[in-house]
Amino acid sequence: MSLETSKKVLDFFAKTVAKIKQKKVKVTFHGGEPLTAGYDYFDKILSGLKSCSSTVDVEIGIQSNLWLFDDEIGRLFREYNVAVGTSLDGPKEITDAQRGLGYFEKTMQGIQRAHSLGISVGCIATFTQQNFTRWREVFDFFIHEHLDFSIHSAVAGINSNYRYALSPEQYGHLLCEMLDYYIENRKKISVSSLDQICQGVGWLEGRVCTFKECLGMFLAIDPSGNIYNCQRFAGRKEYRLATIHDEFDIEKLFSGQGAQQFLKYQHEVNNACKDCEHFSYCKGGCPYNAWADKQNGKNKDPYCESYKKIFTKIKNRLFEEMSSQENIDAIAEEPYENGHLLLRKGQLIDLIRNGIHPSNVA
Ligand code: SF4
Ligand code: SF4
Q1: Cβ of 202 below 6 Å from ligand 2
Q2: Mean pLDDT (whole number) for 124-142
Q3: Nearest to 267, CA basis, from 288, 284, 291, 279
Q4: Do 110 and 147 touch, CB atoms closer than 8 A?
């Protein structure tokens, strides 16, 4: 994104945060590779973003392969408290097979450099047809390297017939297997995507966009200044909400044609999913997944089957833990502690209880 367009985005950002009710706003740079913009770019933009923080708490993040991460940019990120995330699919052999020879070394060097400056790095591990059967090696790698990670299933291309992406059955199976292993190893590592799914079921309210009505949660702005509800729709004019170059009223951003496409989808999903026992913490899944999978002729996230599998597993396990003798005795003695049902024991209960209740999230 050119500096000129970026300055318009900053103006838009300042006007928007002055009007909204939220106390916290997150801004994430991702690409392509955002670090190619260089130090001077980030120096200007980060100070511009922070100058808006008198009205709202601005949290800044970047998703980068870290190949261009050096001490200078690291110190700048530290000054602005930029949360750094990268993509790493596990050990060298697995990562390089998916991302190209040499990726692993360069990204690990970036992670080490960030660590040497006191900056922690969160990783996203992408699972594809190539690596999903080796999930255990991937998991053990992150434990060994003391790196927290989240699970990302490769996004299906349009009508791609799951050439790289996992099938719904494979994804459901992967989530269930990894959850068992995570519960065993939960004191050694944090896997945010599994925490979020468990907490969604526990609190009966989704924690990530996939399991919430996502229109209005994000604004994604592409390099030309087009604004979308989600970066996955970037380049699809029918989903564009506005452009940064036009005069527009922020309050009307979600009532134009692009937003109507989403609302139409949401309405159809509400009808299709209304009798599902998991609806309160699933909300029909991801609109992009449904849109990319038009082949199945349904207006539903094709990973429905995977979600049902993991949700059911979590519910059953929760029920088992809650009905343990120790918990029944604790409830009989004193049902509530700090307003919550007193449950003394349970590995999954711990995982859910350690999460923040969604009502406390800005
Ligand atoms: S379309 Fe999917 S990925 Fe994008 S914000 Fe909505 S749920 Fe999230
Ligand atoms: S699990 Fe499937 S049927 Fe249930 S709400 Fe989610 S997408 Fe809809």
Answers
A1: no
A2: 96
A3: 284
A4: no
Pocket of ligand 1 (CB under 6 A): 209-210, 214, 218, 230, 232, 286-288
Does ligand 2 have an atom closer than 6 angstroms to the CB of 97? no
Burial category of 297 from C-beta neighbours within 10 Å (exposed 0-12, middle 13-18, buried 19 and up): exposed
CATH of 3-154, one of 2.40.30.10, 3.20.20.70, 3.20.20.370, 3.30.70.560: 3.20.20.70
Q: Which two tokens mark 61?
A: 């993040």
For ligand 2, atom 2, the nearest C-alpha belongs to 304
| Neighbour-count burial of 246, counting CB atoms closer than 10 A to its CB (0-12 exposed, 13-18 middle, 19+ buried) | exposed
* pLDDT of 298 strictly over 80: no
Q: How far away, in angstroms, is 88 Cα from ligand 2 center?
A: 30
Cis preceding linkage at 32, omega within 30? yes
pLDDT, greater one: 327 or 234: 234
Cβ of residue 273 lying under 6 Å from some atom of ligand 2? yes
- 297 φ, ψ to 5°? 70, 5
Among the atoms of ligand 2, which is closest to the Cα of residue 277? 4
Mean pLDDT of 174-202: 94
pLDDT tens digits, one per residue of 250-277: 778 888 888 888 888 788 888 889 899 9
Residue 305 has pLDDT above 60, yes or no: yes
- Domain boundaries defined on the chain: 3-154, 167-217+259-362
pTM over 0.85: yes
